[in-house]
Amino acid sequence: MNLASAFLDSTRANRSKTAVFWGNDQFTYAHFRSQSLQVAARLRGELGVQPGDRVGLWMNNSPEFISALFGALAAGAVVVPINCFLKAEEVAYILEDCGVKVLLSEQAMDGMLGKLSAGHPLLRIWKKETFPAADTAPAGFEPAARKRADLAVLIYTSGTTGHPKGAMLTHGNLLHNVESCRQVLEAVAVDRFALLLPMFHSFMLTVCVLLPFIVGGSIVLVRSLQPPKAVLTEIIRHQATILPGIPQLFRTLASAPVPPNLSLRICISGAAPLPADTMRAFDARYPIPVVEGYGLSEASPVVSINPLRGVQKPGSIGLPIANVELTIRDEDGRELPRRQVGELCVRGGNVMVGYWNRPEESAAALRDGWLYTGDIGYMDEDGYTYITDRKKDMLLVNGINVYPREIEEVMYRFPGVKEAAVIGRPDARKGEQPVAFVALDDGQPLDTAGLLAYLKAHLADYKVPRAVVQLPSLPRNATGKILKTELRKLPPHSSRHA
Q1: In terms of CB atoms within 10 Å, which end of the chain has fewer, N or C?
Q2: Cβ-count burial of 135 within 10 angstroms (0-12 exposed, 13-18 middle, 19+ buried)?
Q3: Does the pLDDT value for residue 228 go beyond 80?
Q4: What integer pLDDT is reported at residue 161 of this predicted model?
Q5: Residue 486 buriedness (CB in 10 A; 0-12 / 13-18 / 19+)
Q6: Burial class, 95, CB count within 10 angstroms (exposed 0-12 / middle 13-18 / buried 19+)
Q7: Terminus-to-terminus CA distance in the chain, angstroms?
Q8: Contact yes or no for 80/105 (Cβ under 8 A)
């Protein structure tokens, strides 16, 4: 069993059933079976993809994303979903790091695709607009034989070294997480999953694409998050029953008019902590439970959730999902008693096999069978876990990991910048926003607009600091390390906003 065979088994059993609702269009399981196999056949034939080769997937949400995903898997490739908000320079790093052979993309990316082609003349690019019709499957094509232990997906997650690293997930890792999620969400074939957030995100990829297809459910693929009323209209129109999202989504919905006839039975909040006031506001308006969960790309990604049946504890990330273990450990790897604060560690068939070509970082994250997450928290007497901090110097902007080091390295390339540091400031709408602190070479004036324009040219928009603060010098400790704890103490009004 692998992801492609599980998908094909489901498409065979549900040929005429609607798999995806996309505005006024509906696409059946038969459509995705045929188009995915057509994509696989061309990848293996004309484009020369061999089992184990990496195939990039860089496109916005659309039905073709699904055909590209399962087509690449059927060809035996390792799929590399790429954040569609990244700039060409950031994408180029990922392509080079894992040696992507073919990039599946779309015309909307044409401006940046031209830059990628110029720098990577051997890269093959195939746009979704020329995908083959989904009328019939290719004659005589046989999907590649892949085992559960074979790599299926590389999810690139930001790293403290300034460059993202690829979490290696096998077919078995993802199938394990899908099965665990099926159990805890009680997902069945009649369920319809509202898919609002980007499919490249590991949370959406597992819970809103792999899970519904493997259980024989349907996807309500929403074209836009704005306005909120239109989102609810689509959910009602197509009778969605499960809504996975991030805290900012539920905050927006909590202030939107509540329509009648909602078919939702559960909302799941992940990717970032859910503020208690957001949960209270949502609960006061909607007769639907919103439960908080926790996960990370390195765990395929779901680790825990407040249970559907039983006690739900606001502020907690709940209990481990089926067949997954979660413990709190100290720096020496010893398990800590209840209520003692330490690092969250995860064990189970969903845990990655390591980082692509990063043996030292893999060894640091995977120790004695446990994944050390870098998140800090404690477990109560009932086994519910609470996250209190992050060990890694990371921000969460709209539920997406942002590592300051990556921004700082680009800032150091700007003329005149002598010292640079980035911290996170709480933001009611986005969770956190990056704020930059700079010290310049003697006598240099700060060109705030020029610095921000430079950052925007080299970083995804959500990574660009929303404020820049110039200081004579940045605070450092005795060993010369910049003290971000001191920067966090500075009042917000000292910032010069972009």
Answers
A1: N
A2: exposed
A3: no
A4: 57
A5: middle
A6: buried
A7: 51
A8: no
Cα–Cα distances in angstroms (integers) from residue 143 to residues 57, 153, 256, in the given order: 19, 17, 46
320-334, 378-392, 477-491: which is most confident: 320-334
Cα–Cα distance measured from residue 243 to residue 208, given in angstroms and rounded to the nearest whole number: 9
Tokens at residue 146, please?
A: 């892949």
Rounded distance, CA 464 to CA 247, Å?
21
Structure tokens at 293: 């969960």
Q: What are phi and psi of 300, to 5 degrees?
A: 75, 5
103 phi and psi angles, rounded to 5 deg: -115, 120
Secondary-structure breakdown of the chain: helix, strand, coil percentages, each rounded to the nearest 5: 35, 30, 40
Query: Looking at the predicted structure, is the pLDDT value of residue 158 above 90?
Result: no
List domains and CATH numbers for the chain. 3-385 (3.40.50.12780), 395-497 (3.30.300.30)
- Which whole number is the average pLDDT over 131-141? 83
CA nearest to 192, candidates 26, 322, 15, 399: 26
pLDDT at 184 over 60: yes
Query: What are the C-alpha distances in Å from 98 to residues 81, 92, 203?
Result: 12, 10, 22
Cα gap 406→328, rounded to integer Å? 29
Q: What is the rounded CA–CA span in Å between residue 434 and residue 261?
A: 40
389, burial (CB in 10 Å: exposed 0-12, middle 13-18, buried 19+): exposed
Total residues belonging to the chain? 498
Q: What is the mean pLDDT of the chain?
A: 91
Among all chains, which residue has been given the structure tokens 């990063």?
358
Query: Which two tokens mark 123?
Result: 């890269």
Q: Over the range 36-66, which residues count as b (16 or more CB within 10 Å of their CB) and which as e?
A: bbbbbbbbbeebebeeebbbbbbbbbbbbbb
Longest dimension (CA), the chain: 71
Q: What are the structure tokens assigned to 106, written together?
A: 């779309």
pLDDT tens-digit map of 101-121: 999 999 999 989 988 988 888
Paired sense of beta strands 218-221 and 266-269, if any: unpaired
All residues at 6 or more sequence positions from 375 whose CB lies less than 8 Å from its CB, including other chains: 296, 343, 344, 387, 389, 390, 391
Residue 473 neighbours by CB under 8 Å, 6+ apart: 419, 439
- pLDDT (tens digit, 9 = 90+) per residue, 238-290? 999 999 988 878 888 888 777 778 899 999 998 777 777 788 888 888 888 89
The CA distances from residue 241 to 40, 191, 412, in Å, are 32, 6, 48
What proportion of the chain, given as a percentage, has pLDDT over 70?
A: 96
C-alpha closest to that of 15 among 124, 120, 136, 118: 136
Q: Is the pLDDT of residue 314 over 70?
A: yes
Q: Which distant-in-sequence residues (6+ apart) come within 8 Å of 441 by Cβ?
A: 416, 417, 418
